[in-house]
Write a structure and sequence with these properties.
two-stranded antiparallel ribbon, 8 helices
C-alpha cells in the first residue's frame, strides 16, 4: 500500500468527511455528517515555526525529536505492544474503559453500554464490539499513598484489598517540550520563579481504534504535548 500523504493546505477549511475518505478512513467517515468542517494543522520543524503558531493560538505538529526518548523507550514493537506485554499489562483491580465518544454534555455518568470494566490493557483492544478508550493517569506519590490508605480501609471492614498494580512507566516525563520560555517545568520545584509552567497532569491514553498517545498538560490545561507512536512510526 502506498503511504498516505497529506495534500490539504494548512489553514484551509475542508469537509471532514471528504478528508477522512481521501485518507482511506472510510469506516470513520461513515459516521461523520457532511456539514462538519475541519482545518489541517500546520507542521513546524523549527522552534521558530512552533513559536509562531503558539503565539497565534493555533495547534501545530512539531519535530518528532521532541518525543525521541518516548519512542526509544517503547521500542520497535510500538505502543500497543508496549502496554500489553509489559509486567504492568494486567490489573489487580479492574479499571473503567469507556466507549469512544462517551462523555458529551447530557450523557448519563452511569451507562452500562458505554462503560466497561477491563482487567488488562489487552482487553481495551479486544473486549466485545465496542471501540473502547482507557486513560491511565500517572499520579504523584501522595496520590498513590491515598489509594493505599483507601485499600487498607477496605480491608479493615472485611472487603478484600487487591494487591496494587505494577505501575505503567511514566513516559510523559520523557517528553521534551519545545519553547522552554513558555513550557519549561522545573520538576520538584514548583515555587521556582524560573519555571513558566506548572505540571498538572500526565497520562497514557489508548483506544480500540488503534491510537495510543502519551500526553502531559501544563497549568490550566492550556497546552498539551501529545506524541503518538501508534505502531512503529514515530509522530509528535
Amino acid at each position: 500500500m502506498a503511504p498516505r500523504v497529506v495534500t490539504e493546505v494548512p489553514g484551509e477549511e475542508y469537509g471532514l468527511k471528504d478528508v477522512l475518505q481521501r485518507w482511506g478512513f472510510d469506516d470513520l467517515a461513515a459516521g461523520v455528517a457532511s456539514r462538519w468542517r475541519c482545518e489541517i494543522a500546520p507542521h513546524a520543524e523549527t522552534e521558530a515555526g512552533v513559536r509562531e503558531c503558539v503565539l497565534q493560538g493555533r495547534p501545530v505538529t512539531c519535530n518528532p525529536a521532541h518525543a525521541a526518548e518516548v519512542h526509544d523507550r517503547v521500542g520497535a514493537g510500538g505502543g500497543r505492544r508496549f502496554v500489553q506485554e509489559g509486567p504492568w499489562g494486567q490489573f489487580n483491580r479492574p479499571k473503567i474503559a469507556f466507549r469512544g465518544g462517551w462523555g458529551k454534555p447530557g450523557e448519563p455518568l452511569i451507562d452500562e453500554k458505554a462503560l466497561h470494566l477491563v482487567r488488562s490493557f489487552k482487553e481495551v483492544y479486544e473486549l466485545g464490539d465496542t471501540p473502547l478508550n482507557l486513560q491511565s493517569f500517572h499520579r504523584t506519590a501522595a496520590d498513590e499513598a491515598a489509594k493505599a490508605a483507601a485499600a487498607a480501609e477496605e480491608d479493615s471492614i472485611g472487603e478484600s484489598a487487591a494487591e496494587p498494580d505494577i505501575p505503567l512507566p511514566v513516559l510523559p516525563d520523557l517528553l521534551e517540550w519545545p519553547l522552554p520560555e513558555f513550557f519549561r517545568v522545573n520538576a520538584g520545584d514548583d515555587d521556582s520563579p524560573d519555571a513558566p509552567c506548572a505540571l498538572v497532569d500526565r497520562a497514557t491514553r489508548m483506544s480500540r481504534r488503534g491510537a495510543i498517545t502519551w500526553w502531559h498538560l501544563d497549568d490550566c490545561g492550556v497546552s498539551a504535548l501529545c506524541p503518538g507512536p501508534t505502531h512503529s512510526a514515530p509522530s509528535c
